[in-house]
Design goal:
about 375 residues, mainly alpha, two-stranded antiparallel sheet, 11 helices, disordered N terminus
Length: about 375
Amino acid sequence: MPRKQRSRKPAAEATEKSPTLANNTSDFTSEIDSTSSPGRTSLSSSDESKSEREPVQKEKKRKFTHSKKGSKPAGEFQTYLWVTLLLAFWILDIGVHLIRIIFPLELSSFPTTTVVDWMRILYSFVVPLCFYKLWENSPGKVASTGMVPILIILTLSSCMQAVAETLVGRLQALGFDSERPVVENAIMQFVKPTQLVDVFEILMTLSRAGFNLWWISFLLTILLYFIGCFIKKSAKLSEGIQQLGQTSFAILPLFGAYIWYLVCQYQIITPFILALLIMLVYQLFEQSLYRITDENGQFLLQSMGIAVVFLVTWKWLLWKDKVLGEMYPGVFGVAQPWTYVRLYIHNDIGHLRDVISDDLIEKSIPEETLSITVPTSHQ
């Protein structure tokens, strides 16, 4: 019995001392943790600093790429491209026709190219280049296999039209009426040999072909560019990306006025309305997929809407005009702006003279200058 008691004492003592041992071991482990905690905190802080630096570095890389390419982020308004395109439209297209009316082509300038001719050639390269840069910076641009060939056709057709207008302008100064068939023109009666009439027929055919290719490729370019101007709603957009800014709102009426002039002067009212309807339907389709247009797409769509308002106003103002009503009948018959200028405005302004007149041959050009002879080869 006493042995059993002695054997129990160490166990009891061990149990009594165990809390102290546990406390000592806990203190020791806490000391180890305290000594090792700075390293852990430093590791965690370094991880946090790395995680903070990564998005900053990504933002720097994005900023660097945008500054390197010289283009704005996708979705922002391309101010310099739209302004360049607007200046090209108003100076190289409207300005050309205005110069031709105020300063008609003279016989002394026939052998040489004039400023108007070079302006038309410059238009053929500037406009497709601006459209290409706009397409390149669009957020959801169409594949290059669809856009680039259309831009090439737009450039070639513009060049064809520029060359044809240069030659036809010389003929019009001699009394040629491009709206009549070539054979019915009075000037063709003095052409010798008569086979040269076929050459003028080919010239007018190329002029019409270049014009048709031009307006088709122009409207297709606008449609394909508009298709690539859509952004997801979930994307982080900058403030005011869905609304027009001050710059875009300032040039919007001028751009809409040029589209009105383009549709009226070149008589492409029906294709223009069809293109606008396609754009509206496609916008509704994209909105069902939670996608919206960026500022460039809104600018293009609203400018075409302003052009429709100008078309309706122009038709309403000239609705009771009998002369223009006979020349442009029907609801979709809209008078050409330069036709209105030649009929009414140039009579009141002394500097404006009519370029196309049927009696120009009898007034200023003798019949001898109209005879074209080709020497035959002597065998």
